[in-house]
Amino acid sequence: MTEENLKVTELEKKLKKKEDELERLRKENESIKRSNLELKEEIFQFKGLVYSSTSLITFLKGPDYIIEFANKPIKEVWGKGYDVEGKSLFDVLPELHSQGIKEYLDQAFYKGEPFHARSLPIEHDKNGEMVRYFFDFSYMPQYNYNREIIGVGVIAQDITNRKRAETELKESEHRYREMIHSSNSLIAILRGPEMIIEIANDAIKEVWGKGANVEGKSLFEVLPEIVDQGMPEIFRTVYETGETVVAQESPIMHLKNGEMVLGYFDFMYQALKDSSGEIEGVSVIANEVTNQALLNRQIKKSEREFRELVNFMPHKISLTDTEGVPVYYNQSWLDFTGKSFDELLSESYLDMVHPDEREFVENEVERCLSTEENLDIEVQIRNKDGNYIWHLAKATPIRDEEGNITSWISSSTEIQKLKEDEKRQEDFLKLVSHELKTPITSIKGYIQLLLASLPDDNRDTEKRLPIKPYLNRVETQVERLIRLLSEMLDLSKIEQNELELKIEKFNLNSHVREILEDLKYSNRNVQLELEEDFSCEVHADKDRIGQVIINFVTNALKYSPDSNRVQLKIFEPEKGHVAVSVKDFGIGINEKEQNQIFKRFYRISGNKDDTYEGFGIGLYLSNEIIERHNGKIFVKSELGKGSEFTFTIPQNHQK
Ligand code: ADP
């Protein structure tokens, strides 16, 4: 081989080596390029992660903690705009100076110790107002490739909202527990099928009587006595079905001061559900109502007794509301009408009343409802056979503590037999008085004839036989008899609606004067005074008006044993009316009886019958007569001082 050839071979070898070297470098370069690309991708991905993270992230460089990078969420919490890179953290957020943040950063920066904090409160200045935030923080030292610390990385979570919700939850739970414990109601929360007592307030513990330490135990273990009272079944139903069970005045035996006692409770057992709707226990809310329950039982008992009593009575008893609408009828009503309770309530009571009396009954009821006076009427009511039976119906209001009427109670008593007896008596009296009237009137005629035929001056005979005084006495007695008979006849006329007025025109004043003259003639030693404030002609029944005046005056004289003075007055009470009053100074009438005396046969019981003779008819007749004249009678009286009876009538009678 030549030297040249050797050189070429040598050069070729070198070239090959260089070429290999070049190939290796090219490959290396390519791998560097690739890893560079991969690194870029990684950085890109990493940055993307950091930017898109909801965590708050920042890198702070050097001892002045210059913000090298801060993501959007942390910038928003800082609230100092988005252009903060390159500035010191403490220049951007001077409020951090006083909050110990630098110490945490220094710990990471100078000592290389990462620092983690949970629920760290930090206040940020938001336009001059310090707003408190809570963060979970990590401060981590950041290294360069020489493993030297060049800054601090911060990752934080804003947990302000969660913290606030937690606080609110705690507060509401606290309030809820406070409420349970301070409540007067009996409250317990029981968990699981075993009814483990989780919460029991003081009120329920006191009723249980098993001391304060019951939480954590099963209800049935604490209160074995309720097991036999059906309670486990109730709890099980609520626990298994989720149904709410409500019980009122439920009787339960429980321990009180070491003794088993019966108490009454209002209960509500309700299923407790977790957030997914699963039943996890039962809540108990109860109130002890023993006193009220005992009272209610007492009320129910007395109501039952009262009903029994009312049903047992032969009288027909009913209750009406304040408007007079019936709300209750007793058994006697049902038996009499042959109707059911509901039928009676659904009908108007007026339907049971005799058609002729319906208007009268309705008016009377209306009057009593509006004046709040007692009702007292006689009325015919239809029985189950369709016959109308006479009843005495009375009603009186029932009032509450304030005196307001709450209802009316009425009783109707059968008086059919009484009415029939009365009718028979009336018929008999009518017959008797009619039959007696003729003979007695003729007796009176003969007496007057005898008196007239006796000479006035007959002293000799008078001494031996005092015929004239005797005849005078007989005449007075006969007159009384005639008055009685005509009153009796009037009475039966009224009963049979036959009392008719004979209306004529006359001068009332002269009529009164004439009557007084007659009365003076037969009552010699009395003092009858007349005051005429008004004088007029009237259209009225002259005899009947006279009858009323005579009745007033004879009563005034009769009921004044210690006085013989009677004052009459004629006056005009209102335009178109005239009034006559008769005033005495006798025994008077008490207030209660002033309304009663106008009833038929009513006589005041204190007056001894033998002291004041009479039948209790006169005022009844007078009242009827005046009413038929469309007038009114009034009485003013004071016991022991005297009475004044007044009637007023229209000057012109109108039918
Ligand atoms: P009598 O025939 O009983 O007098 P009346 O109907 O005239 O009947 O009167 C009814 C009752 O009223 C009398 O029984 C009496 O108790 C009472 N009375 C009537 N007028 C007077 C009076 N002027 N003073 C006191 N009581 C009277």
UniProtKB/TrEMBL annotation:
<keyword id="KW-0472">Membrane</keyword>
<keyword id="KW-0175">Coiled coil</keyword>
<dbReference type="InterPro" id="IPR013655">
    <property type="entry name" value="PAS_fold_3"/>
</dbReference>
<dbReference type="Pfam" id="PF00512">
    <property type="entry name" value="HisKA"/>
</dbReference>
<dbReference type="InterPro" id="IPR013656">
    <property type="entry name" value="PAS_4"/>
</dbReference>
<keyword id="KW-0808">Transferase</keyword>
<feature type="domain" description="PAC">
    <location>
        <begin position="116"/>
        <end position="171"/>
    </location>
</feature>
<dbReference type="Pfam" id="PF02518">
    <property type="entry name" value="HATPase_c"/>
</dbReference>
<dbReference type="Pfam" id="PF08447">
    <property type="entry name" value="PAS_3"/>
</dbReference>
<dbReference type="InterPro" id="IPR036097">
    <property type="entry name" value="HisK_dim/P_sf"/>
</dbReference>
<dbReference type="InterPro" id="IPR003661">
    <property type="entry name" value="HisK_dim/P_dom"/>
</dbReference>
<dbReference type="InterPro" id="IPR003594">
    <property type="entry name" value="HATPase_dom"/>
</dbReference>
<dbReference type="InterPro" id="IPR036890">
    <property type="entry name" value="HATPase_C_sf"/>
</dbReference>
<feature type="domain" description="Histidine kinase">
    <location>
        <begin position="431"/>
        <end position="653"/>
    </location>
</feature>
<feature type="domain" description="PAC">
    <location>
        <begin position="375"/>
        <end position="427"/>
    </location>
</feature>
<keyword id="KW-0902">Two-component regulatory system</keyword>
<dbReference type="InterPro" id="IPR004358">
    <property type="entry name" value="Sig_transdc_His_kin-like_C"/>
</dbReference>
<dbReference type="GO" id="GO:0009927">
    <property type="term" value="F:histidine phosphotransfer kinase activity"/>
</dbReference>
<feature type="domain" description="PAS">
    <location>
        <begin position="302"/>
        <end position="372"/>
    </location>
</feature>
<feature type="coiled-coil region">
    <location>
        <begin position="1"/>
        <end position="42"/>
    </location>
</feature>
<dbReference type="InterPro" id="IPR035965">
    <property type="entry name" value="PAS-like_dom_sf"/>
</dbReference>
<dbReference type="InterPro" id="IPR001610">
    <property type="entry name" value="PAC"/>
</dbReference>
<dbReference type="InterPro" id="IPR000700">
    <property type="entry name" value="PAS-assoc_C"/>
</dbReference>
<dbReference type="GO" id="GO:0000155">
    <property type="term" value="F:phosphorelay sensor kinase activity"/>
</dbReference>
<dbReference type="GO" id="GO:0005886">
    <property type="term" value="C:plasma membrane"/>
</dbReference>
<dbReference type="InterPro" id="IPR000014">
    <property type="entry name" value="PAS"/>
</dbReference>
<protein>
    <recommendedName>
        <fullName>histidine kinase</fullName>
        <ecNumber>2.7.13.3</ecNumber>
    </recommendedName>
</protein>
<feature type="coiled-coil region">
    <location>
        <begin position="155"/>
        <end position="182"/>
    </location>
</feature>
<keyword id="KW-0597">Phosphoprotein</keyword>
<dbReference type="InterPro" id="IPR005467">
    <property type="entry name" value="His_kinase_dom"/>
</dbReference>
<keyword id="KW-0418">Kinase</keyword>
<dbReference type="Pfam" id="PF08448">
    <property type="entry name" value="PAS_4"/>
</dbReference>
